[in-house]
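CO-FOLDING WORKSHEET

Operator: S.A.
Ligand of interest: adenosine-5'-triphosphate
Run index: 483
Mode: holo prediction, single chain
Checklist:
[x] sequence pasted
[x] SMILES validated
[ ] output reviewed
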Amino acid sequence: MITKNVRKSVDIISHSNNQLKENENAERYLNEATKSILNSMQDGIYITDKDGYTLFINDAYLRISGLKKEQIIGKHMIDLISHGYFKDSASLKALRENKPMSIIDYFDGGRRCLATSSPVYDKKGNILLIITNLRYMTELYDLQAKLEMTEELNNKYSCEINELRKENINRDNIIGNSKSMKLVYETIERISEVDTTVLILGETGVGKEVIAKEIHKRSLRNNGPFIKVNCASIPDTLFESELFGYEKGAFTGAMSNGKPGLFELADQGTILLDEIGEVSLASQTKLLRVLQEKQIMRLGGTTSKNIDVRIIAATNKDLKALVEEGKFREDLYYRLNVVPLTIPPLRERNEDIVFFAFHFLEEFNLKYKKNKSLNYKAYEVLKSYYWSGNVRQLKNLIERIVLICPTEIIDEIYINSILGNGNLINNYTLDDNITLEQAVSNLEKQLIYKALRSYRSTRKAAEALGVSQPTIVRKANKYNIKS
Ligand SMILES: Nc1ncnc2c1ncn2[C@@H]1O[C@H](COP(=O)(O)OP(=O)(O)OP(=O)(O)O)[C@@H](O)[C@H]1O
Ligand SMILES: [Mg+2]
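OUTPUT RECEIVED:
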């Protein structure tokens, strides 16, 4: 019995001895593992006991500080400071203050580090250790500098994007990089924010309406309405009621409640008096009164109403010539011609043609789900064509070829055939609202333009067309063809 009990107690003792050994092993293993973890860290780690004696310093700390383990381990922080290894000690501060403390530490070679010491407590709340984390500030500074640089770049890019976006919003689908169009854009820029009246001149299809809208869009009135009045399509008898409105019962057939006119609708915004050259002399007088007084009176009304409208007029007619012929009131002409803006015809800015063609090709490819493209020579043909219908004609042509060209790549032969080059009669149909005289004169204009463009001399052009040199010069002047 005794032996049994003794054996039992021996067993227990040997078990607890084994357990102890295992625990020691585990602790040693844990110690080693912890040390490896701490040594693999990029930040420096420094551990002191509750009195400020150094227990541990990891590899990163040694690397950053340039100190040696033997100089440090087991030493008190105060001794280390007095030996000049440290200039200050966050560990001592954390011990003293009983809370995490940070300092900036400097090591040899001017290395700046941020040291943050935090107390570690036992279960009773007494300080056990002080663990200090050391971070190499130069790296932080580098990162911060990089961040600042990136932020600066970001800022710059976002400003650029904003500018581009603004350009995009403002210029919308406006194409034109030629010198003459840049001058137009510059003028637009200068006049957009002032309320001056603008007279836009230019052949048919050059983009007068596009420019008028652009002026409105860039003006301070861009939240107000943009009203386009096609003066040519309003019968003279309805001109007054359409533009200035009417009161109820003003005339038979009038709406029972009366109707505001286009000027009233354009209040706080812009009105485009398009085709102003088509307005009769009688209507011109009524228009002049409104422009002078900035007031309208509805037809059949008794009181005037102030209107706040910016006026833009546009025409493809030579208004000055109409004034000289007595077909346009001179006073109205001067009232409208405050800032004249002449949009050059497409043939005088043929560097824009490629941009237009490309732009319209994209537009119609998208619209008709096609993937057509032009070859280099096709662009050349477009550039050398006499665009009597200007941008509109080019736009229509591109729409037509996107729809009907059987091949994906459109070449110069196809373009020539569509343009009727070599067979100019194809340019006209009997439905076109054009007289024989106008057609002949268009043809003459195109031939002279082509000859001058190809031969670059009036003498050679005259020879090619079988006419005298003075005839070429006279006709070139007549058609405003610049050499
Ligand atoms: N700068 C431009 N950018 C983009 N499209 C343009 C430009 N100029 C003209 N267009 C296009 O060309 C066509 C004709 O333009 P617009 O109607 O403004 O010409 P217009 O000078 O007013 O012609 P008209 O004298 O016959 O009234 C329109 O389809 C327009 O979208
Ligand atoms: Mg127009």
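REVIEW:
The chain has five domains: 1-38, 41-140, 179-339, 345-427, 433-483.
Residues 208-209, 274, 314 surround magnesium ion (ligand 2) (CB under 6 Å).
[x] output reviewed
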